[in-house]
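Possible regression after last week's pipeline update?

I re-ran a chain I had predicted before the update to compare outputs. Posting the input and the new output here so someone can diff against the archived version. Not blocking, just want to make sure nothing changed silently.
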Amino acid sequence: MEQPKNESAVKSKREIKGVVEPKLVRTISFIIITISLVASTVLCIWAIWQTEVYDTVWRAIATFIVVSVATGIFTFVNEKLG
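New output (post-update):
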């Protein structure tokens, strides 16, 4: 005799809900972080070859960190509180 399957037991993945569609937010976050990383890398390499713009390295790294943290926080808030 088979017992009926419990619907909650059948679902192995938890549905993630958000104000904005979480898959879209993750995709956009990935694109923004990737673009920031590439731009920071290019600016850092450029600054290495032109020593008079050493300040550019720190600005590029700081910008990358700020953009990455802000994007990560937005993704977290959208998925957890949305």
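Follow-up from reviewer: compared with the archived run. The chain has three helices and no strands. Marking as no regression found.
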